[in-house]
Design goal:
The protein is mostly helical. It is built from one helix and no strands. It has one domain.
């Protein structure tokens, strides 16, 4: 019972740490793509 509780706590902590990191990675990735597209768009026009 105690082991399960600890496991859940560790899982929650890992999720709490990983999710923001993933979100930051995703946002930076999208931002870079948008920047590239914008540059190409400006270049075409």
């Amino acid at each position: 019972m105690v082991k399960n509780k600890n496991r859940a706590l560790v899982y929650q902590c890992s999720v709490f740490i990983l999710v923001p990191r993933l979100l930051i990675m995703l946002t930076t990735f999208v931002y870079r793509i948008q920047l590239k597209n914008r540059k190409n768009y400006l270049r075409i026009r």
